[in-house]
């Protein structure tokens, strides 16, 4: 990898780590549903502008419906889960739990897609369960007694991410592929349309919202345009330059940045039990994602697919 690749990898981790901070600021002010809808809407607008500036040809080759459905599974539902978790959990908690995405992907692959798990990966799965247990049962957090529901919301989000990776391979990659920018645009279109009725209901019958909170608007714009639209393009560019396996290492870099931004901006602190649980989760993810030196020919034969966020 070139120095520029390392720099972009760190930049992407910093951006995605900041998304949990922005959700933590916006969700309590606007509500989980409103925040999520505005996030995907601004991401859609941002991607549309980028496609125009890049003069990218727009042709979905019959895969628009698949991309939109992926947007529901890979954006709308997990983003909503993280917005719900942000009502209760510090940003650092959500950032650490986001690292369980490869773990969930391994379990889904084994359960539903006939993927093989060797002893190394099974050890990672067991350690992941132990780490999550430590996070949810040790230490204290100012979540008003909602620690467990918040953790479950995050885990549901990472389950959606894990499932979306396999669906992307089945619906997009194995059907001839599609420009990653168009996949990202189509997914945010699908997410926006899916969330629109819920957003309309919240406006009509939900609790009153104070829309005049500048910090919340800045956070929603940032999480939509920067942490979603721009981050998607940066991530897919990394995949093209250094490959999906190396790009996946961003999973390990997001939690430190999530914790850092939460501490610097919101003064959040983490319990010792949480830190220990987070380290165990990171170790489990490394075991699940790392390769045990497969033969070169076999490694080239294995298809690798990005786990888009």
UniProtKB/TrEMBL annotation:
Highest taxon above the source species: Bacteria
Signal peptide: none
Keywords, alphabetical: Membrane, Transmembrane, Transmembrane helix
Domain EamA: 9-136, 149-289
Subcellular location: Membrane
Coiled-coil segments on the chain, per record: none
UniProt keyword Glycoprotein, yes or no: no
Membrane-topology annotation of the record: Multi-pass membrane protein
Residue ranges crossing the lipid bilayer per the database entry: 41-60, 67-89, 95-113, 122-141, 147-168, 180-204, 216-236, 248-267, 273-290
GO annotations of cellular component type: membrane
Primary location group: membrane
InterPro entries the record matches: AA-Vitamin_Transporters, EamA_dom, EmrE-like
Family under the similarity heading: Belongs to the EamA transporter family.
Protein name, entry field: EamA domain-containing protein
Organism name: Aeromonas dhakensis
UniProt lineage: Bacteria, Pseudomonadati, Pseudomonadota, Gammaproteobacteria, Aeromonadales
